Amino acid sequence: MRVALLVTCLVDGMFPDVGQATVAVLERLGHQVEVPLAQTCCGQMHINTGYRRDALRLVRRTVAAFEGYEAVVAPSGSCVGSVRHQYAGLAAARGDTGLAAAATDLAARTFELSEFLVNVLGVTDVGAHYPHRVTYHPTCHSLRMLGVGEAPLRLLRAVRGIQLEELPAAESCCGFGGTFALKNPDTSTAMLTDKIRGILDTRAEIITAGDSSCLMHIGGGLSRLRAGVRPVHLAEILASEPAKVA
Amino acid sequence: MKTPTPTPASASALTFLGMPTAPRGVGALRGDEPFPQAARRALADTQLRRNIANATGTIRRKRAAVVGELDDWAELRAAGAAVKDDVLAHLDQYLCQLEEQVTARGGTVHWARDANEANAIVTGLVRATGAQEVVKVKSMATQEIGLNEALAEAGISAWETDLAELIVQLGEDRPSHILVPAIHRNRAEIREIFLRRMGAAGGVPASPDLTDSPAALAEAARGHLRERFLRTRVAISGANFAVAETGTLAVVESEGNGRMCLTLPETLITVMGLEKIVPTWRDLEIFLQLLPRSSTGERMNPYTSFWTGITPGDGPREFHLVLLDNGRTATLADPAGRAALRCIRCSACLNVCPVYERTGGHAYGSIYPGPIGAVLSPQLTGVADNPSLPYASTLCGACLEACPVAIDIPSMLVHLRGRTVEQAGHEHPFERGVMKTAAWMMASPRRWSAALRMARLGRFLGRRRGRITLLPPPLAAWTTSRDLPLPPAETFRERWARRTEGGDR
Predict the structure, then answer these.
(1) DSSP annotation string for B359-424
(2) Which residues does residue A209 pair with via DSSP β-bridges, in sequence order?
(3) Mean pLDDT over residues B252-277, rounded?
(4) Among B328, B357, B392, where does a domain finish?
(5) How would you label B334-345 residue by residue, b for 16+ Cβ within 10 Å and e otherwise?
(6) Do B174 and B308 belong together in one domain?
(7) CATH number of the domain residue B252 falls in
């Protein structure tokens, strides 16, 4: 399958390893991955902060950048949530019916990595090897906006060597919320503290999730506390392979 | 009586343009300070944090159990949403039908455009009876319009009879939850309030050896309230539902105190938001399942009272229904916001909200806190008067999942953020500049690449610690509690370009 990577602005600028890992997993499964460099940001931050007119420029750019691809895959439930559940409505509300139609078409072809692997490709074992104690945080938009359900956990359970620990109060938000973390830093931190408490209770050394944004938030708090727990994106775990004997 | 004909949605939206929002200076829809500041103070209140986390946790578990046992919950929810949408689409017809039915059965209907009109109507009605005091059934509408304060100004004492509202009133406090107004208080605090205030408020005092056991506290409240029920000749209530086909009002409660108010006094005045209508008795079947399971986590609430006009020789001899707008038709005018009027005030969204769970209700400023308050309050007042509320959410989606009438609160929050930004005189010029600049850079891959190269300068910020611990505005709030990793030496697109140029694919 000819798959386009929607790399997301955050992965592009801050976490390139996550983009590379996503490509590695898809290529290992025999797919041809392309990265349209016309993409920049999906516009979710602008939409969710109320800057709809500015967001529309980015929606238009993203829709155009991914035209014609059979499948578009992103290592982010949140950005896929925006493409799938916000784009068409925003375009329609602004009276751009052409863009709304194109956005609806893109929405049907765009997938978060774990749902693409499990629900579209029907794969749960991607041949990964990851000998670490790991706990998984189901990010809100993957969980409730996309409804990816058990897909990420099924992938993780198939990883060799992994010790998967259940996260208490897993479905509670970590407090990131995009610009919420900046506009409401105190409430955001209170939520983060409770999320970190749950993570520490698992005694895991790795916290994983399907969104770099939430992981940047959780990881930022863990780093500030020198907690000895590291954020690693789901794609990076799935891309890891056993060491080869030279 | 006019017979309105159904109008298409666009035409009816036009009909409502220009309808006023809830007026300033009266009622409880606006806070004194923006949410982030109020939340900061609430977060520091350790007792409040503990009380609310305990209480919401308990209600959440109970709700999950009783919702989970119904295999037709999804259908009930869809039916509830559909009935409410039908009511909102034909509100003009249903309101007229309700007025006709209430009047035919001996009641009197009053129309109040806003809080001031409603307060004036009720004050006038109480004055006409000659009474100096009234008993009250727990009611959000009367809290919304500040009725107790208006009555006090007219020299009329209003006694709350719902146990939690009584605690709030005696404590000279504000409600912090729609269903459990005293959720921020624990038993020890309630005992204190009863001891100090019951006698001082001119009622039966609490026994000096009052303990904080639930039974003892309930007994103290019973003694205090019973005297008021027997003495007072006028009662004021809200309504959970009004059945248009028969003009019947309904109040759903747990304690029975509401029923005392609804049956003992000579005059009953009900103040009701004009969206509380259901067309027929059959429709109640849906809501009387949805509401108790969503709110208290019970299969059925202990007391459901219905009354239809007046019945000679039984119950109040006079019944007045005050239909309250106070920003509701303004809310109805916005197609992307009007579903907030489906709300049946169950509080399920408050109990599952991770923000509410930590800040409690007072931080929202409005009498309607939590997720539903964050979409309802700014619409009733106009977004200019509550600009921080649509941002008081991470958009985690727990509220939508819990809502028994499927109000898409997250999408509505996003919509109201848009309205907040687009209104004239938006208060964050700096934010606007940052967002505009970001969009401009992101609108071109060339500018975006250049911006990412610039961001690499961030490596300098954290070169000694290996991470960034202090960021300049507008990102300074991030590093109050969170580090940021160093930006990578190479962006993903640079890596990818190298790979494709190198013929590595």
Answers:
(1) H-SGGG-SSS-HHHHHHHHHHHH-GGGSTTGGGS-----HHHHH-TT---HHHHHHHHHHHHHHST
(2) A233
(3) 96
(4) B328
(5) beebbbbbbbbb
(6) yes
(7) 3.40.50.10420
**Domain positions in chain A:** 2-120, 133-239
Query: How far, in Å, CA of B286 to CA of B301, rounded?
Result: 14
Whether B324 and B122 have beta carbons less than 8 Å apart is answered as no
* Angle of CA points A183, A188, A190, to nearest 5°: 140
Give the C-alpha separation, B83 to B105, whole Å: 25
> Is B128 domain-assigned?
yes
* pTM score over 0.80: yes
Of B271, B299, B328, the residue at which a domain comes to its end is: B328
B233 belongs to a structural domain:
yes
Taking CA atoms, B416 is separated from A114, B16, B33, B474, in Å, by 32, 18, 19, 22
Q: Which amino acid is at A65?
A: A
Contact criterion met (CB below 8 Å) for B238 and B141: yes
Residue B3's pLDDT is 42
Count the domains in chain B: 2
- Interchain pair A12, B401: CB under 8 A: no
CB contact under 8 A, B355 and A46: no
Query: Is B35 in the A-facing interface, judged by CB distances under 8 Å?
Result: yes
**Is A35's Cβ below 8 Å from some Cβ in B?**
yes
Q: Residue holding tokens 């516009």?
A: A43
- Residue A184 and residue B39: Cβ atoms within 8 Å? yes
Least CB-CB distance to A38: which of B336, B394, B445? Answer: B445
For B44-58, how does the pLDDT look when each residue is reduced to its tens digit (9 = 90+)? 999 999 999 999 999
Chain B residue with CA closest to A32: the answer is: B505
Residue contacts between A and B (CB atoms, under 8 Å): 195
**A48 in B contact zone (CB under 8 Å):** yes
Q: Which two tokens stand for residue A245?
A: 């004997």
What ipTM goes with this model?
Answer: 0.97
Place of tokens 């035209």: A67
* Residue B372 Ramachandran class (φ > 0 left, ψ -120 to 50 alpha, else beta): alpha
Residue A131 vs residues A114, A164, B173, B319: alpha-carbon distances, Å:
20, 10, 55, 73
Tell me the chain B residues in contact with residue A184 when contact means C-beta distances shorter than 8 Å. Answer: 35-36, 39, 355, 391-392
- Within-domain flag for B286: yes
Do residue A54 and residue B354 have CB atoms under 8 angstroms apart? Answer: no
Band (B201; pLDDT cuts 50, 70, 90): confident
Record: contact B417-A176, CB cut-off 8 A: no
Q: Which two tokens stand for residue A126?
A: 């991607």
CB atoms within 10 A of CB B54: 12
Residues 401-420, chain B, touching A (beta carbon < 8 A) = 401, 411, 414, 417-420
Q: Which residues pair with A136 in a beta bridge?
A: A208
Which amino acid is it at B252?
V
Residue B8: its pLDDT value, please?
42
User: Is the distance from CB of B133 to CB of B158 less than 8 angstroms?
Assistant: yes
- Work out the minimum CA distance from A48 to partner chain B, whole angstroms: 5
The Cα B114–Cα B91 span in angstroms is: 17
Give per-residue burial for B151-182: e unless 16+ CB within 10 Å, then b.
beeeebbbbbbbbbbbbbbbbebebbbbbbbb
Q: What is the pLDDT of residue A244?
A: 74
CA distance A29 to A116: 12
* B467 to chain A: closest CA residue: A223
Of the partner residues B35, B417, B491, the one whose CB lies closest to the CB of residue A13? B491
Give tens-digit pLDDT for B447-485: 999 999 988 888 888 888 899 999 988 899 999 999 999
Q: Name the residue type at position B188.
A: A
- Is the minimum CB–CB distance between B480 and chain A shorter than 8 Å? yes
Range of the domain at B443: 437-501
